[in-house]
């Protein structure tokens, strides 16, 4: 009972509050055109097997690997950072592009992109509506991960504040991967191409922040590496891993949050540029 009460007070209620804030923003602050696209896209996810399959795959992979291979129950770590949250972004490298690959590729394949773009709405209305619908699907996946939180609270006394921070950090990473997929999806009408290219870019975005790469760049002082040093340094600065690690530890740094927010807005802006070029 204590574990269930903790789950309700420290996870269910904050989740409901976040959902209520999102609903309020959708209803009172965002234009009607964004709400129309949002409802259309969200319905499309759940009237096809896509969302259900991805839910099963994500929850199956994350739960099975965590309990049986990553040693969540044996780790005795109160924050779940090492045995659980460190691995979630690796799953999302595939899952987030799978959620977002249809955002614009499907419209182009069916020939309805011109119809959407000729509707009485600005391109950013469609971009934001589609992106928010996919973001809700990813949010639902993380919310349904609650059994691991209940299990840990039932068996011990974990630091639930840090666990919640881990979920927030994971969601930021998922939103970044989704934003990358939005850009790629706008470039091609093939969902498979959008998926594969997005997975490759998301993998680079994640791996470029490895500490080993940062240490290597700091040691460069001569040779032909200096010629590509600026590009390597840029890629390293765009790595999401260091920002994720800080947030997942419960360190709510404005610098890390601004990194994710800025990256997402840049990718959505890039999506609008691609769509405007196609529209022209």
Care to describe what's here?
This protein has one domain. α1 packs antiparallel against α10 and α3 packs antiparallel against α6 (88-100). With 280 residues, it is mainly alpha-helical. The N and C termini lie far apart (60 Å). The chain is built from 16 helices and no strands. It has helices at 2-29, 32-46, 49-68, 72-75, 81-85, 88-100, 102-110, 113-118, 123-143, 146-155, 160-187, 191-207, 211-219, 225-237, 241-248, 254-279.
Features:
single chain
Compact overview of the structure:
With 280 residues, the chain is an all-alpha fold.
Estimate percent helicity.
over 70%
Q: Count of helical segments?
A: 16
Largest sheet: none
Output the radius of gyration: 20 Å
- Outline: globular
Please identify the structural class as seen in this structure. mainly alpha
Whole-number total of structural domains = 1
> Unreliable runs, pLDDT <50, ≥5 residues?
none
How far the N terminus sits from the C terminus, by CA atoms, comes to 60 Å
What is the averaged pLDDT score? 84
Beta strands, count = 0
Order of helices and strands: HHHHHHHHHHHHHHHH
Strand content: under 5%
Topology:
Elements: H1 2-29, H2 32-46, H3 49-68, H4 72-75, H5 81-85, H6 88-100, H7 102-110, H8 113-118, H9 123-143, H10 146-155, H11 160-187, H12 191-207, H13 211-219, H14 225-237, H15 241-248, H16 254-279
Helix pairs in contact: 1-10, 2-9, 3-6, 3-9, 6-11, 6-12, 7-11, 9-11, 9-16, 11-12, 11-15, 11-16, 15-16
């Amino acid at each position: 009972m204590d574990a269930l009460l903790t789950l309700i007070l420290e996870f269910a209620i904050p989740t409901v509050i976040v959902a209520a804030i999102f609903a309020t923003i959708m209803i009172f602050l965002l234009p009607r055109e964004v709400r129309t696209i949002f409802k259309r896209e969200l319905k499309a996810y759940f009237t096809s097997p896509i969302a259900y399959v991805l839910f099963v795959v994500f929850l199956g992979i994350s739960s099975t690997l965590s309990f049986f291979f990553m040693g969540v129950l044996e780790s005795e770590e109160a924050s779940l950072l090492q045995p659980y949250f460190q691995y979630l972004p690796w799953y999302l490298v595939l899952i987030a592009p799978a959620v977002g690959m249809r955002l614009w590729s499907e419209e182009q394949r069916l020939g309805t992109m011109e119809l959407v773009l000729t509707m009485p709405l600005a391109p950013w209305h469609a971009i934001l509506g589609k992106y928010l619908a996919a973001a809700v699907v990813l949010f639902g996946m993380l919310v349904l991960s609650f059994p691991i939180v209940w299990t840990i609270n039932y068996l011990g006394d974990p630091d639930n504040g840090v666990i919640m921070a881990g979920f927030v950090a994971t969601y930021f990473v998922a939103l970044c991967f989704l934003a990358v997929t939005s850009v790629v999806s706008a470039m091609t009408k093939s969902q498979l191409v959008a998926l594969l290219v997005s997975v490759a870019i998301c993998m680079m975005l994640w791996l470029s922040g490895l500490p080993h790469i940062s240490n290597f760049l700091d040691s460069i002082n001569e040779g032909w590496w200096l010629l590509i040093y600026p590009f390597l340094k840029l890629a390293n600065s765009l790595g999401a891993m260091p920002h994720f690690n800080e947030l997942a530890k419960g360190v709510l740094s404005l610098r890390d949050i601004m990194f994710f927010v800025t990256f997402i807005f840049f990718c959505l802006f890039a999506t609008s540029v691609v769509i405007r070029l196609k529209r022209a």
